[in-house]
C-alpha cells in the first residue's frame, strides 16, 4: 500500500491512470503533476464501532526535481536512476492510523463475569498517533511488468517498528483502454503491529481485554480499469482488497479481517 494525504494517493490511482495511457513528451514534460478525481468510492474500516471511509473528490499534487520529489505527502531523494532501477530515500506517514480517525464512542452491553446481570458500559476505540517513517524504495519495470520494493522504519518513536513491502503489476493498453491488475504483500514488525492493533495495559477495560500483537504479513490485490476520454480527462474504476495479517485480525479492536475499497469516477490531469 498512510495518512489522509497518502490515502488520497491510493484512491487517485484512478486519476493518475491518464499518465499511463497518454503519450509523454519528455522534452516538454512539466516537473509538476496536478490532477483531481471526482466520483464515488468507499474504503471499509475493520475497526469495531467504526465508519467506512467515503470518497467523493481528491487532489493529486506532485513535483519532481532532478533528485528531490514530493508525491502526495511522500518526500523523497532519488540517488539512483538508470535503465534498470530507480532508487530513492523516502519519508512518509504510516497508513494504519487512517482507520482510527473514523471511530465512535458507544455504550455496549457486557456480561459481567458470567453473572446473570448485564451492564451497559462506555466503549471507545483507543486513539493512535501518526508515525513518520523513513526508508528506501526501489522501482523497476519492463515488458514483464513493474515491481516496487520498499523498507521503512519509524523515526518518530511512535511505534519503533518497521515495514517491508513489495507490489507487482502488469498493464495492458489497447488504444484508449488501460487495464492493470497488481498484487503485493507487506511484512509488519511486531512493534508496529502491536502499537496499532494491540491493547495496552492502560487501555484495558471490562469491554476491552488486553492483547499483544506479533508480526505478520498483509496481502493485497488491486484491479485498475481506465478509459482515456481526452488529453486531460479519464474515466477510471479501481478496486482493491487487503487481507490483514492474523495478529491484526485477531485483535479485539478488529471486526473484519480485511479491507475492501473501490473508486469510480472522472480524473482530470492539468
Provide keyphrases for this structure.
Porin; 15 strands; mainly beta; 270 residues; 4 helices; globular
Report on the structure:
There is one protein chain. It is globular, with a radius of gyration of 21 Å. A hairpin with a 2-residue loop joins strand 3 (68-71) and strand 4 (74-81). The chain has helices spanning 4-11, 13-21, 190-197, 246-249; strands spanning 32-43, 53-64, 68-71, 74-81, 86-93, 106-111, 118-123, 132-142, 145-154, 162-169, 172-174, 177-188, 216-228, 233-243, 258-269. It has a single domain (4-269), classed as Porin (Beta Barrel), CATH 2.40.160. With 270 residues, the chain is mainly beta. Strands 1-2-3-4-5-8-9-10-12-13-14-15 form a 12-stranded antiparallel barrel. Strands 6-7 form a two-stranded antiparallel sheet.
Number of domains: 1
What topology, given as strand order, has the largest sheet?
1-2-3-4-5-8-9-10-12-13-14-15
Kindly report the average pLDDT value. Answer: 85
String of helices and strands: HHEEEEEEEEEEEEHEEHE
Biggest sheet architecture: 12 strands, antiparallel, barrel
Give the termini distance in whole angstroms. 25 Å
Q: Spans with pLDDT under 50 lasting ≥5 residues?
A: 1-27
* Count of individual beta strands: 15
Shape: globular
- Regarding CATH, which class? Mainly Beta
Give the helix level as a range of percent: 10-25%
Question: What amount of the residues lies in strands?
Answer: over 45%
Per CATH, the architecture is Beta Barrel
Indicate the CATH topology: Porin
Q: Report the total helices.
A: 4
Rounded to an integer in angstroms, the radius of gyration calculated over CA atoms is: 21 Å
Tell me the name of the CATH homologous superfamily.
monomeric porin ompg
Oligomer: single chain
Supply the helix-strand structural class: mainly beta
